[in-house]
Design brief:
By secondary structure, the protein is mainly alpha-helical. Helices cover 68% and strands 6% of the residues. The chain has 2 domains: 3-43 and 180-376, no CATH class; 49-155, 3-Layer(aba) Sandwich (D-Maltodextrin-Binding Protein, domain 2), CATH 3.40.190. The chain is built from 15 helices and 4 strands. Strands 2-1-3-4 form a 4-stranded mixed β-sheet, sandwiched between helices. Helix 7 (180-202) runs parallel beside helix 11 and helix 7 packs antiparallel against helix 14 (329-343). The two termini are 19 Å apart.
Amino acid sequence: MNLTRLSALMRKEMLQIVRDPRTLALVFIMPILQLVLLGYAATSDVRNIPLVVLDQDKSPASRTLLESFRAADYFRQAFDVNSESELRSLIDAGSARAGIIIPPDYSSRLAAGRPAQVAFIIDGSDPAIAGTTLAAATLIGQARATALSVERLAARGLAVAAAPAIEVRTRVWYNPDLIAAYYMIPAVVGLILQFLTVILTATAIVRERERGTIEQLIVTPLRASELIVGKLAPYVLIAFIDTIEILAGGVLLFGVPINGSLPLLLVLSGLFLISNLGVGLLISTITSTQQEAIIVAIFYNLPSIFLSGFIYPVAAMPRVLQFVSLAIPLRYYLIVVRGIVLKGVGMPALWPEVIALSIFAVVVITSAATRFKKRLD
């Protein structure tokens, strides 16, 4: 590989990028915009669920129960109604996602020491919200029932109850407050980098062909491998700048701590970037126009969102899809970036992913160089 020819091609490619201010602005501004939008939107936290209340008892006991729901961060008492038909219409319209019906005999049954039943209606059209709502309502109800039991024992002079037979003490590692942003932002970093690098490089060789400059590159002494590396290197530099930019945005905007080694994260991010840049170049060698290249790049990127573990756990997928996901570099990078950022792990824990990314990078770069060599013949 001739360094003089290679450096000349890299300089030419960099000048071509710099002379396109719109693309350059897109490369450096779009990642931050995507980080902000996805960082706030792509969250599994469910808070302030609008709650409609039908309190048919209107007693201090019922108000205490409602206060337990309001005190939790999950619910927001949005409506008070006087009939079940009003409650139904609000849930049907989507104005409320849950409803609570307190019967007229609620306080009297509690005062008599009998169990009191409360109806809690959940809109199940969105399973994610419905699941969280169900779990929160169940826990709040259990907590209130336990408090009432303690009050009754205290009233009977049995304030000291027997210790439970089993006591489970939970401890959450790595993300004690269960903040969704800490889990999602590292994944968003990988998603943005993949979309950006694949689409940018997918048009690299196609652009030369559309502008009629590919013939000039063919007649030069450049080898196919030198052309691939020369096309790749400027985008690697740009992608590294984007990586640092997005990581800084995650720390400053969302407070995501980087618990592991930042140099290690950057090195392994470089391996991930090379893999995706290679995919983009491979797409560029098998397409004829920039429009076709972008369509193929999008066709490659979209399944990555669902098969990489960005949204859904890979272990929960059918085995066929788990096997397909092995061909997606983002799957391995998500394990790497989440492991370093959240858990602070090092290379000993990440060897399988590093080996997989290395194999993928070698395969796609070799395939791109071989494919372009065929185009030179």
